[in-house]
Amino acid sequence: MNGAPLIFDRAAVRRHRERAAALVERVAPVLGEVAQRLVERLDDTTRPFHRALDLGGRGAVAPLLAARGLSVVSADLSPRMAARSLGLAVAVDEEFLPFRDAAFDLVVANLSLHWANDLPGALVQLRRALAPDGLLLASLPVLGTLDPLRAALTEAEAGLRGGAAPRVSPFPTLRDCAALLQRAGFVAPVADLETIALGYSDALSLLHDLRAAGETNAVAVRDRRIPPRALFAAALASLPVREGRVVLDLPLAMLTGWAPSAS
Questions:
Q1: Among candidate residues 135, 88, 131, 85, the one with its CA nearest the CA of residue 107
Q2: 3-state DSSP assignment of residue 184
Q3: Going by DSSP bridges, is the β-strand pair 130-141/245-258 parallel, antiparallel, or unpaired?
Q4: Where in the chain are the domains?
């Protein structure tokens, strides 16, 4: 990773994805909504696409691309999760992609790149995997994601233990995302912000959804001890409630970048 800091435990990320493969249908509506918004951006270009890489789509992206007539390779850190998608399925590490240069003319990375320790390096590899004038579409959560849960867990654990361990991932800013695309060599990079409102009849359902999506805590410096019995009950009880529902916003960076072409 060229000296990139170790932020995430990638082995834990893979375990969480493997476990989630049997549960991911629970969050299919959310994954599908983000995937639909991302893939619809293809309607804004007249450039034809034929060979697509679905990176970490968890079964939500490949059907949308196949419906447009594209040949799709579906890749995921988890073999079981990759196998949920249509077309050729392969298990790959986003930080060490095995694809040859110019293998695809479209890459769609839906809610998958935020677990990379070396995000700039991963983007460079994706750019190399694109043919000249190929397109990258990516979505990833940005700063503000799960902030109420982060604050609630921190406050509850500080009260119980006198200190708090990181239990929610760090996220980049929208400006960071645009700069990373440019740094990775993409042409005409664009980073737009879209927000999805999530509502739950009870706070525990939020934790169940995070588990079903494979999005539970994989921060490298996380506390490995069993958490205090009262921690999650206290934290969840303090989450904001609106009209009887726990409501959280999911702010997403929707990224577009083109592989450079001499033409």
A1: 135
A2: coil
A3: antiparallel
A4: 10-143+171-202+250-258
* Greatest Cα pair distance in the chain: 62
DSSP, residue by residue, 67-100: TTT-EEEEEESSHHHHTTSSSEEEE-BTTB--PP
CATH architecture of the domain with residue range 10-143+171-202+250-258: 3-Layer(aba) Sandwich (3.40)
Buried b (16+ CB within 10 A) or exposed e, 129-161: bbbeebbbbbbbbbebbbebbbebbbebbeebe
**Residue (of 61, 98, 102) closest to 81 by Cα position:** 61
pTM of the model: 0.93
pLDDT in tens, 19-60: 999 999 999 999 999 999 999 999 999 999 999 999 999 999
Spatial CA neighbour of 83 closest among 49, 59, 107:
59
Summarised one tens digit per residue, pLDDT across range 89-113 is 999 999 999 999 999 999 999 999 9
Q: Which residues contact 74 (CB under 8 A, 6 or more apart)?
A: 54, 57, 61, 62, 82, 85, 86, 87, 88, 89, 90
